[in-house]
Design goal:
8-stranded mixed β-sheet, alpha+beta, 5-stranded antiparallel β-sheet, rod-shaped, single chain, 12 helices
């Protein structure tokens, strides 16, 4: 642009001093400049003057000639695949030019100077490449910073929370999300920890209630479990450790507790194995409930296995002193929540429950007694040896109660 302006000013100066004969030499000199591609001069009618090289027409001249305000025009054109910057600069007909050129027009000539854009385009291309490289490096650095930031602030904490959720899903309620953050993810981790603590508490609380209680809670609506129950045909299982009182008087309390927990855990595992539900523990007594079509068969099998393990296992201490008596009865009973709205117990009650307890009290150490009602369910069961005993009187019954003893052998266990 500077060269184009300088070429124009030089030609204008030559014309102003009236040295038109020197114009051709000046134009040839300008054309010799490497950065100048061509120089052309057009008169006010658009005809080229100082013909070197051949004359040509410029369509753009019409706009300059017709314009009231004579301003330079710049544009790009491509010749033989190469781009050039063309500048058309009008020379005004000044007062001192009136003597030679008259004053009936305001334009003396238009000077065209064009220069190649190759060097400029090469620099632009080089700068584009450099800018692209810088952009790529910047993007990579920004990506690395964002990745490190996201990994430490988002990804890693989320992975910790996901690991806690996975462990909890597998039953590990000791999991804890250690996320030291005060943002939303840190708040989420705190909520997860609170949830895990709540689940851990509920998990341990389930150990203190029967499965029937848990099921009742799951099936309850937003108002919770309501007092009351429903009639069901079920089988109650009572077991009691014989000689427990005498044993407690002779040994240390810690040993008594260890023995009691061992026997209750042993019985609980076997009852659960056969589909029974532990209703409660009352001192050394265990109460369980069996339901379903094979409830009596499963209850009797559990009783047989408990007695067999208690008698024959070499790992049980004090088995010569401690014996278990078991009573089983089947019949209609009420199953539901009993107590008060503030403190309730989900259990079974009824005459048939009481009869099960009476049979357990009547059973000797190592003996299994079942009622006539339970006997009807397993009378044809070949695995059990059932022996009818002399009827007994029990509290709450006016007539003697028919009872049967279940015998077992080492094969049964």
């Amino acid at each position: 642009w500077a060269l184009q302006t300088a070429a124009y000013e030089g030609f204008r100066s030559i014309m102003l001093v009236g040295r038109a004969n020197s114009a051709r030499y000046y134009i040839d000199g300008v054309r010799a400049i490497p950065e100048i591609y061509s120089v052309h001069v057009f008169d006010r009618k658009g005809n080229e003057r100082f013909l070197n090289p051949k004359p040509r027409k410029r369509e753009e001249l019409a706009a300059i000639i017709a314009a009231k305000e004579k301003k330079p025009m710049e544009f790009l054109e491509t010749v033989a695949g190469e781009q050039f910057m063309v500048r058309l600069s009008p020379i005004a007909n000044e007062v001192r030019c009136y003597t030679c050129h008259g004053k009936n027009h305001d334009l003396r000539a238009v000077v065209e100077v064009s220069g190649s854009m190759k060097s400029i385009n090469d620099q632009i291309q080089q700068r584009k490449i450099a800018s692209l490289g810088a952009a790529v490096v910047t993007i990579l650095l920004v990506w690395m910073v964002i990745r490190l930031f996201m990994n430490s602030v988002v990804v890693k904490p989320v992975q910790i929370i996901e690991g806690v959720a996975s462990r909890v899903g597998k039953g590990d309620f000791s999991a804890h999300a250690n996320v030291a953050s005060s943002d939303e993810i840190g708040t989420l981790a705190l909520r997860i920890n609170d949830m895990v603590q709540g689940l851990r508490e509920r998990f341990h609380l389930q150990k203190f209630v029967s499965q029937q209680t848990v099921n009742a809670i799951k099936q309850a609506d937003n108002s919770g479990v309501r007092l009351g129950g429903e009639r069901k045909i079920a089988t109650v299982f009572f077991s009691d450790i014989r000689g427990f009182t005498a044993y407690s008087e002779k040994v240390d309390p810690e040993r008594v507790v260890t023995m009691l927990n061992f026997y209750l855990a042993l019985q609980s595992a076997i009852i659960k194995k056969y589909g029974g539900d532990i209703d409660k523990f009352v001192g050394d007594e265990l109460i369980a409930v069996f339901e379903g079509e094979t409830m009596v068969e499963r209850a009797v099998k559990a009783a047989v296995e408990i007695q067999g393990v208690a008698k024959n296992s070499p790992d049980i201490a004090d088995k010569d002193i401690i014996n278990i008596g078991i009573g089983i009865n089947t019949g209609e009973m009420v199953v539901g929540a009993m107590g008060s709205p503030e403190r309730m117990d989900y259990t079974v009650i009824g005459d048939n429950v009481n009869l099960g307890a009476r049979l357990c009290s009547a059973a000797q150490g190592g003996q299994i007694l079942i009622s006539d009602a339970s006997h009807e369910y397993v009378i044809n069961h070949k695995e059990f040896e059932l022996k009818q005993l002399e009827s007994i009187m029990v509290k709450g019954k006016e007539k003697p109660v028919t009872i049967y003893e279940v015998r077992w052998s080492n094969k049964s266990t």
